Amino acid sequence: MNDVVNSSPKAAHVRAAGVSLTGLRKSYGSNEVLKGINLDVAPGEVVCLIGPSGSGKSTLLRCVNLLEQPNEGTVHVGGFEATHPDVDIDRMRRKVGMVFQQFNLFPHLNALQNCTVAQTKVLKRSQAEADQVAQANLDRVGLGHLADRYPDQLSGGQQQRVAIARALSMDPELMLFDEPTSALDPETVGDVLSVMRNLAKEGMTMLVVTHEMGFAREVADRVVFMDGGVVVEEGSAEQVISAPTQDRTKEFLRRVLDPTHIDLS
Fold it and tell me: For the chain, how big is the Rg over CA atoms in Å?
């Protein structure tokens, strides 16, 4: 059953942070994964990164909040130059929420506690305030009634929504999603995507690595197709997914979409 709570469009309380990547390069030994990426994400914009495995999408996402250190180039998030040697990384990361393929919840903490521990330790909120914020965000993702459940008592889709609520509880200005539905059963994917749709409606800045073409077509302001560590094509979802111009984009989409849904001539 879909128990996701619908949010009101463009909630005024959501703050937005832009992202700017310039000349971004990342190598692992002799393997250059990112080859001079230039990409801007405007405040309030939803950008979906698509492409085959190994194209550099997840590495790009991890470079935004310096989980991976770029070899060259600059990363700006909001008012911070994240790649500056003197940057306060912890302060910068408070602007950024990240949701991974795996849920990474603490198994010994219930859903509410998973959403409060970073608030009290990093933001120094009182337990009462942290509980209030956590409960509000669990309500936001449709799981307020399961706040006392432990991860092993929740489905995969519910665990992923708790992970989203945990990230939101830190009041991020930017949300990064790294294929958040790839580890889920098909019947639970819809609830997670519904939460993400609501965040987009609220005006949250989002950078999403996804293989869900329907979601990208519906929600993304812009779609970026990557392959071999470079941006091959970018534009509106309608342009990139429904009428791609580059042969490599067409070839990729032939493999992931029903060809009757797209003109690849």
Answer: 18
Q: What is d(CA 50, CA 42) in angstroms, rounded to the nearest whole number?
A: 18
Arithmetic mean of pLDDT, 168-196: 92
CA distance 123 to 91: 10
Type of residue found at 3 = D
Among 2, 38, 44, residue whose Cα is nearest residue 205: 44
Task: Read off the pLDDT of residues 217-228 as tens digits, 9 standing for 90 and up.
Answer: 999 999 999 999
Which tens digits make up the pLDDT trace of 87-120? 888 888 888 999 998 889 999 999 999 999 999 9
Distance CA 41, CA 48 (A): 10
- Predicted confidence (pLDDT) per residue in 16-74, tens digit: 578 999 999 999 999 999 999 999 999 999 999 999 999 999 999 999 999 999 999 99
- Rounded distance between C-alpha atoms, residue 244 and residue 24, angstroms: 25
The whole-model pTM stands at 0.89
Region 173-189: what's the mean pLDDT?
Answer: 91
Burial call 24-36: b when 16+ CB within 10 Å, e when fewer: bbbeeeeeebbee
